[in-house]
Every structure is written in structure tokens, then in C-alpha cells.
Amino acid sequence: MDKTTPAPWTPPNLDLDQIMQYFATDEKAREYLEAVRWPNGPRCPHCGNADTERIYAIAPNPGKKIRPGLRDCAECHAQFTVTVGTIFEGFPRAAPQVARGVVPALLLQEGLQRNVPWISAATGRRGL
């Protein structure tokens, strides 16, 4: 990938305010992390199953404490989210916090270091 273009899952030409709007909700943040971690669909971190017909999304239900993004693997019968197997495992709100806090900062830093035209130094000063 050309070093002057953002990753394919990152919308181009965003300033820091737009990046924060892009990750405005927990759902958008989780979907972004899923797209980055699983570009070809979810993969079970327990058994490695990547068959999308054998991985089922579990409908969120706050009353039963079933959070969005929870999946069930039909191969090993384990449940998982995008954070399982990462340093954020065990923190239910980690995905949204990472996407809204860490990812924009990394994108900004990467853009400033690479002199990417879609992130200017003025954007960096305003955002930091």
C-alpha cells in the first residue's frame, strides 16, 4: 500500500473532528474494529474457525446483558467479540474506547509522520 494513502477502511480527507464524529457511537467504533481485525469476516479466536456460515451473531439484549458484537462459534461452541485475544479482552467497553480514543490518535500521528495530505499540521495542533 502506498504510504501516502490511508488504510482502505479509513475514510480519506478527515480532520480530527470528523474522525471523532466517524466514531461517535459504540456501534460505529465496534464495526470499525471488526472491519480492521476481520476484513474477510469474523474468525473464532478459540478454534480458528473462519466459516461465516458457522459463526453466528447473537442479537444484543441489554436485559439479559448480551452486548452488541457477541458471536457464537458452531465449531467450538465458544462465544467471542472483536476484543477476545487482544489486550482489551475482559473490558466490555474496550472496543468503542479504543476506536474513539486510540485509533484517531494513531491515524493523526501516522498522517503527521508521513506528511499525508489528508492530515495537516494545523489539524494536529487543533486536535491535540
- Give the helix tally: 4
User: What would you report as the Rg, rounded to the nearest angstrom?
Assistant: 17 Å
Poorly predicted regions are: 1-6, 118-128
Sum up the overall morphology in one term: globular
Report mean pLDDT, rounded to a whole number: 74
The total domain count is 2
Helix percentage range:
25-40%
Structure summary, number of beta strands: 3
Overview of the structural elements:
The protein has 128 residues and is mainly alpha-helical. It folds into 2 domains: 11-38 and 88-128, no CATH class; 39-81, no CATH class. Helix content is 37%, strand content 6%. It has 4 helices and 3 strands, in the order ααβββαα. A 3-stranded antiparallel sheet has the order 1-2-3, with no helix packed on it. Strand 2 (71-73) and strand 3 (79-80) form a beta hairpin. Helix 2 (26-37) crosses helix 3 (94-114). The longest helix has 21 residues, at 94-114. It starts with 15 loop residues before the first helix and ends with a helix.
Short key terms for the protein model shown above:
single chain; 128 residues; mainly alpha; 2 domains; three-stranded antiparallel β-sheet; 4 helices; 3 strands; globular; disordered N terminus; disordered C terminus
Write a short abstract of this structure.
With 128 residues, this protein is mostly helical. It folds into two domains: 11-38 and 88-128, no CATH class; 39-81, no CATH class.
Question: Mind sketching the topology for me?
Answer:
Blueprint lengths: L15 H7 L3 H12 L17 E3 L13 E3 L5 E2 L13 H21 L6 H7 L1
Antiparallel strand pairs: 1-2, 2-3
Helix pairs in contact: 2-3
